[in-house]
Amino acid sequence: MSGPLAIAHTEASLEWGGPQIRTLTEAAGLIGRGHQVLIYAPQDARILAEAPRFGVPAVAMQIGEKQPPGVGALVGAFRANPVDIVNGHSSTDTWLAALACRWLRVRDRPYPALVRTRHVSIPVPQNRATRWLYQRAAARIVTSGELLRQQLMRENGIDASKIDSVPTGVDPATFAPRDRAAARAELNLSQSAPLVGIIGALRSWKGHRVLLDAMTQLRRAEVRLVIVGEGPQRAPLEAQVDALGLRARVLFAGQQRDVTPWLAACDACALPSYANEGLPQVLVQAMFAGVPCVTTDVGGIPEIARDGETALVVPREDAPALAAALDRLLLVPSVGAALAKRARAYALPRFGLATMLDRMEAVFERARSDVRRGAK
Question: Is 269 helix (H, G, I), strand (E, B) or coil?
Fold first, then answer.
């Protein structure tokens, strides 16, 4: 490293989920290493409200729409508080940041290097404007997994040397294995009923509806399901629970700032996503916590979920297959215990928080160096 970095993260999304948690976790970690980090987000963005809890400075800014005032606001902010790196996280804010950096490049020296982080596997448009954004405006591109990196290379023709795969890092101390009985007592949950958990935003593609269908096909009728998270699918999922007669077996726990006791309380963690995933934090968290997982092969998930080795992997939107996989874990606990042990051994050296911070420091330093060389 050639000295501390000044980093500005931009986030236009109002939602709260894995990408926002990663951004704040990473920002807090880099602040702890001596870097200056600031978040810019719209007034109503959840990341603004959560930033103080992580000890990360955050400023409200008009960047929720692709409009000229957003570009002007970022130009003014970067001039008032110069930064080495601007890290864009959603489409809207990345476009605004790219135009702001371009403006400063023409008029100011030095100007920030733009890094674009891709958290999900939604395809990137193949048009002239987007090619400019990814291939010229961005100094570096970061993906949350290697499969997303390969997707950008394959589908968008981006040079492999420009893209870095940096999976989200999890703190092994925070997500260490805990006593299941103690966690259930803390949460006032049954000590006897087998418990499946799904943790994440309530979005259609996360597969909650498939999991609810699978609940009706399990061989043990006493199995319970806890749904941790909030989102636009809450009402439809509540209606599905009632239609299936599952009200007594399903708990909607809502948004939880600390998911560690909820993971610890579960006999199995399910993530039956069928689209858009990067490399989901919850799978890494569950593996660190020693909880066996059932999931699919969407996006970057295969990087951590290897069928029969680190997780049980089932076809997308296949409730019978999902139910059968859960039965394997719940009917024979030794199967889940062995799976969880292998998964933890695989995940710990690859997906730790320190590893992510090391890699992001290297990405940011390379972006800063490349821009400085180009400005000479």
Answer: strand
